[in-house]
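Escalated from tier 1: zinc ion holo job.
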Amino acid sequence: MNERHQLIIKNAEIHRQEILDAERWLWRHPQTGYTEWEANAYLIEKFEALGYELVRADMDPEFGKIPGFYTDIDTGKPGPFLCIMGELDALDIAGHPESVNGMTHCCGHNCQAAGMLGLALAFKEPGALDGLSGKIRLMLVPAEEMIQLAFREGLREKGVISYFGGKPEFMHRGYFDGIDLALMVHTESLGKDLDFLGFSGHNGCMSKVITYEGKSSHAGGAPHLGINAQYAAMLGLQACNDLRETFLEKDFTRFHPILKGVNCAVNIIPDEMVIESYVRGSSLEAMVRENMKFNRALAGAALAMGARVRLSDRPGYAPEVHDMQFSALCEEACCELVGKDRVSFPDTLHPASSDFGDVCAVMPGMQFYCAGAEGAIHGTGWYITEPERAVMNAVRVQLLITEKLMSNGCAAAKKIVAEHKPLFPSIAAYFEAVNRLMLDKDAVIYDEKGNARIDFQNG
Ligand SMILES: [Zn+2]
Ligand SMILES: [Zn+2]
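Tier 2 regenerated the structure:
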């Protein structure tokens, strides 16, 4: 590591305790997507105390009030605009021993957010921007986890948001206009031997709310007068499960429904059953194709039982395709920091999904994992056991990556931007494509004789 790299890492090192304190504070204040007001207020205060001017998503006159903000750092010299992101939201996971009001940071976003404060502190140190060109946007983004779909649909109907994910919502608001490339480091449990892990990308996803409607009646005395929505739902899921062998391996299709339960008692035939699910896939085309089959199966099951089914599909996250040149630069920075044998960047896809994929759909982007947690991610045994690795390593490597991208007249960043081939030519073209996933249908329409018409596709 050369002298300059040692200096920029020292710029974070001198704020080590404040950064690690932020990680603990954020862990103790977990809130789910679009309700992260405590973390938002905490970080706004810290950033403003450092003299940063913020653009706040809760003070945007054109849009609804949601948590999240960004600030720009201008080196004063021309060059590409790099956006570095940290996520604010926690998970709805009441079974975690340290959950607060049923929520816990079981995806480690508290480390990302603390890391962003680390970057904000380091970039204010004397000499931090020496030799750099271009601009840096530090962005705190809400609502990465695609959960609580009914709550988000309510926000959408009220016009507070247009998209369920924080990053597509920020894209819609224009907060990514003019950005040339994007970076994010996510915490993971990677064991003792590995500090950094990067994939070629992530699966995309779309969200579904499936509502079966039947007819209530006495479960013992008059079941013949009812239509059991729960049975219709189970039949629908059985049909979806039986489609699994038709999936192509290359598509990485995932369908993982949860039954949200019935508002009913055990002696009543249930007249409603709500299911939430994703359809995941490695391409938009695969997601659309497999989702059509799921919707047909769900409608067929309703018809079999004489029930109705409402299908509500929403855009989720675009398949995340990393820029390989940017990935190689990140891998190089990781190796410089911790040594080659503690870094792995396999050329494979990770089957989880992230709204970082939406950003990567329109610009070169790279997200990779940093060790320091233990237990299964999204599980009740997840803890940040080594904040030194989870937070400080993430801060250090992001400083190094920024340096590599933006020093030397931004030569590396310029080359990545110039040679990148985005999935969509513009943010508008991207929205046009994902908006076509939006669907609201009563999928089985009966006539007076009991014959039915099936309607489960747009257009
Ligand atoms: Zn997660
Ligand atoms: Zn996450």
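The pocket of zinc ion (ligand 1) is lined by residues 107, 145, 378 (CB under 6 Å).
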